[in-house]
C-alpha cells in the first residue's frame, strides 16, 4: 500500500507541475510529500517563474556536483562558488533532471561571475556536468549557445532521447549538423529565425527527423531586406514530413505577399494537421487548394483570411475543430452584398461542421438574418467557452441590446468569456439586466476594446457583479490584446 500511495501522490503532484507555488509548498508539508515532489520539480527545474538571478540556492545545488579539482580551478580563476562541502545533499537532484535550458542556465551562471570569459568557462563545466549527470534529456533550449555540447563525452547517450528542441538561426550551421547526426527522434521543434538568409544546418536538422509532430517557426529580426529567402529550404524540408506532422505554427514578420507558392503547396500536403497557425503573411489560396486542407484540424488560426476562404476550410475540416481563432479581413475590403452572403455562409458552415468548437471569433452584420443564424450556432455548439465578436452595424446600441437578448436566450452553459470590439455598445441598463439573468451560470470574463466601459458607472456595475460572482474578470485593451 505505501507504494500505491506514493504512486497516487506522484500523479496528483504531476498535475501541479505548472503551478510552481502549490508544488513548492508541497515540499514543506512532510518528508513523504517532499520525496514525491522533488523528482517532479527537478524534471524541468528551469520552467518555473522564478527570478533565477537572485536564486543562489539553485546555483549552489548545481555547483555542488562539480568535481572538487574543477571547483578549485574555477575559484582560482576568480569565479564565485559555494564552499566545498563533503557531506551529501538530501537528494541526488540532477539525477531527476530531463531538461537543459541554456537561457535560464546562463542567468543562473551570472550569479557566479560577471566576467565574460569566466562565464564561458563556467558554462562549459556546467554543461558538461549536466551531460554526465542527467540520465537522459527530453527537452533542450539552446538559444544563443556558444558550446558544441554534442562533443562532450556523454552527449550521444544523452541526446539520442531528445524529444523537444528550441533553438535559433543565429547559431552556426555546423552546430546543427552535429545535432542532426545524434538527434533524429525530435517530436517538437521550435525555431526562432534571427537571420535574413538560409541556415542550412537547420534545414538538415529538419530533414533528419523521423518523428516530427510539432513545428514552430517565428521571426525575430529587425532587417527584412532578405539576402536570400530564409524560408524556402525550411518549407521544402518540412514538406517531407507531411505524413507525420500534427502541429504547424508559422509566425513571420509581416510579408505582404510570398511569391514562391511554396506555403500553399506545403499546406495542401499536410492531411494530418491538428493545429494550423499562420501569422504575419498574406497567402492567396485557390479554391482547390483550400479544399485540400487537413481534415483533422482542431485549432485553426490564419491571420488575414477572407470569410470565403475560412468557410471552405471549415467545410472540409472533418468536424474536429475546437478553436477558430481568425483575424478576418476587415469588412471594408468586401463588396457589401458579397460580405453579407459570405458572413452568413460562415456562420452556417460553423454551425454545421464544428459542433465541438470551444473558442470562436466571428465577424458579421447586425441584420435580423445574421442574428437568427448566430442564435442557431449558439444552440448547436454547446461546448463553446469563448466568443470574440465583431459586428458591423448602423445602430451600435440596438445591436448591443439584441446581442444580449440572444446570449441570454441561447448561450451554451459552458460559455465563460466574451470578447468584443467597439462595433456595438451595451447600454448600462441592458447590461445590468443581462447580468441579473446570467446569475447561476459560470462566472463570465469580459474583454473589450471600447473605452466606454472604463467609465465610472460601468466600472461600478462590473464591480457589483464581480462581488456577486456573476463576473470573473473585466479588462479593456486598446492595443490588440483582445485577440486570442
From TrEMBL:
InterPro entries: LRR_dom_sf. It comes from the Eukaryota. SUPFAM superfamilies: RNI-like (SSF52047). This is F-box domain-containing protein. It comes from Rhizophagus clarus. The lineage of its organism: Eukaryota, Fungi, Fungi incertae sedis, Mucoromycota, Glomeromycotina.
Amino acid at each position: 500500500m505505501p507504494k500505491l500511495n506514493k504512486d497516487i501522490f506522484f500523479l496528483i503532484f504531476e498535475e501541479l507541475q505548472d503551478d510552481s507555488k502549490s508544488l513548492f509548498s508541497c515540499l514543506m508539508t512532510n518528508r513523504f510529500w517532499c520525496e514525491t515532489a522533488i523528482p517532479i520539480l527537478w524534471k524541468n527545474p528551469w520552467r518555473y517563474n522564478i527570478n533565477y538571478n537572485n536564486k543562489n540556492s539553485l546555483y549552489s545545488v548545481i555547483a555542488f556536483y562539480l568535481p572538487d579539482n574543477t571547483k578549485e580551478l574555477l575559484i582560482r580563476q576568480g569565479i564565485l562558488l559555494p564552499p566545498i562541502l563533503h557531506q551529501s545533499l538530501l537528494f541526488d537532484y540532477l539525477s531527476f533532471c530531463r531538461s537543459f535550458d541554456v537561457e535560464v542556465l546562463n542567468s543562473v551562471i551570472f550569479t557566479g561571475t560577471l566576467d565574460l570569459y569566466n562565464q564561458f568557462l563556467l558554462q562549459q563545466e556546467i554543461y558538461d556536468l549536466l551531460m554526465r549527470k542527467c540520465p537522459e534529456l527530453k527537452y533542450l533550449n539552446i538559444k544563443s549557445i556558444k558550446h558544441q555540447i554534442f562533443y562532450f563525452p556523454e552527449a550521444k547517450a544523452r541526446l539520442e532521447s531528445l524529444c523537444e528542441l528550441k533553438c535559433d538561426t543565429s547559431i552556426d550551421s555546423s552546430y546543427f549538423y552535429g545535432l542532426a547526426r545524434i538527434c533524429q527522434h525530435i517530436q517538437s521543434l521550435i525555431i526562432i529565425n534571427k537571420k535574413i538568409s538560409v541556415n542550412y544546418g537547420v534545414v538538415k536538422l529538419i530533414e533528419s527527423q523521423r518523428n516530427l509532430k510539432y513545428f514552430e517557426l517565428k521571426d525575430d529580426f529587425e532587417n527584412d531586406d532578405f539576402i536570400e529567402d530564409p524560408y524556402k529550404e525550411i518549407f521544402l524540408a518540412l514538406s517531407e514530413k507531411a505524413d507525420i506532422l500534427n502541429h504547424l505554427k508559422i509566425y513571420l514578420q509581416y510579408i505582404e505577399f510570398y511569391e514562391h507558392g511554396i506555403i500553399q503547396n506545403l499546406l495542401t500536403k499536410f492531411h494530418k494537421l491538428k493545429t494550423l497557425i499562420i501569422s504575419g503573411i498574406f497567402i492567396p489560396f485557390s479554391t482547390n487548394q483550400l479544399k485540400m486542407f487537413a481534415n483533422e484540424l482542431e485549432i485553426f488560426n490564419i491571420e488575414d483570411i477572407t470569410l470565403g476562404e475560412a468557410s471552405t476550410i471549415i467545410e472540409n475540416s472533418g468536424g474536429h475543430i475546437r478553436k477558430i481563432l481568425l483575424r478576418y479581413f476587415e469588412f471594408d475590403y468586401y463588396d457589401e452584398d458579397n460580405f453579407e452572403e459570405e458572413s452568413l455562409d460562415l456562420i452556417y458552415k460553423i454551425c454545421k461542421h464544428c459542433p465541438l468548437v470551444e473558442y470562436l471569433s466571428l465577424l458579421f452584420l447586425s441584420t435580423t438574418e445574421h442574428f437568427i443564424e448566430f442564435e442557431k450556432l449558439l444552440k448547436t455548439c454547446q461546448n463553446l467557452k469563448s466568443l470574440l465578436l465583431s459586428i458591423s452595424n448602423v445602430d451600435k446600441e440596438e445591436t448591443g441590446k439584441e446581442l444580449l437578448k440572444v446570449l441570454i436566450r441561447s448561450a451554451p452553459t459552458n460559455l465563460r468569456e466574451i470578447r468584443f470590439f467597439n462595433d456595438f455598445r451595451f447600454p448600462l441598463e441592458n447590461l445590468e439586466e443581462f447580468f441579473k439573468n446570467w446569475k447561476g451560470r459560470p462566472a463570465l470574463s469580459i474583454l473589450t476594446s471600447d473605452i466606454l466601459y472604463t467609465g465610472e458607472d460601468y466600472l461600478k456595475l462590473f464591480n457589483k457583479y464581480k462581488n456577486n460572482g456573476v463576473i470573473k474578470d473585466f479588462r479593456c485593451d486598446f492595443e490588440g490584446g483582445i485577440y486570442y
